[in-house]
Give the backbone structure.
Amino acid sequence: MKEAELIGSLLPSHPDIIPIIKEIRKKYNIPEIYTEDNELLEILFLDEVINWKQIREDIEAQIRTKPDLIPEQLANVSRFFNNEDVEPPELKNRSDVPDDIRNLLTNSYAFLRSIFKPVDSQLEEFYSALTDRVIEFLMTGKSREIPEGWVGTVYTTSFLGNPTIVAMVGQLGDPKEISAQFRRKFTETFGHSRPKISNENLNTARFLTLKLSGMKLKDIIDIYIEQHPSEFPKDINSSSYKEARRKHQIMFKKRIQRLQDTIIKICGDNN
């Protein structure tokens, strides 16, 4: 994303990063690099006097002391996951909450944790990536783009045992790029072939509900006839009425089966 490249270019000028860069330059006697001076770069990379491993540890330690570098929301997520309780705080010491409400709140709490858990796990990656970019700027004078996940990300998590795709994008993110990532992730997770819900499926859904509730097909046809009398001859004893009824029963049996097959393909579950 261009947004990631732009923010990466401006990163060394961040008010919390500038003092770190200045202090590290002074402390380890690192010269400033403004042009591609290959000789100077070679000296910096090969100079055994400059302990880059120690410098990296120093930079990361200082970055971790800058709370403003971490968005407040991300810090809240981190604190949220330091709590290992499986129940939401609102249920603590509450014996008066009915079981169905308790289960609902607990499942919602689990869903939130499943969504934000990858965000929490990226906190350490954030510190590492930010440190890498500061030390790279010190070594080369160049700024690398920030990880795209900092402005928007798409990932797969699990909710109630089912794969769930989550897209998160901030104000600086590119919605078109995130949408493209979401579609790729969706295809990667659920496959290329996915049946579409047709109008026939929607019209058949209520009859499938009746079937799954235990109603026999002939009784479902009776309901359809009652709602659509114009499609059948008025004389219920005539052969034409019986034939129309027979055709509709065959048609509905196929429609209901097609809808069931479509649901199974979409959900990937025979239940």
Summary: The mean pLDDT is 77. Residues 2-146 form one domain. The first helix runs from residue 2 to 10. The beta strands are 152-159, 162-169.
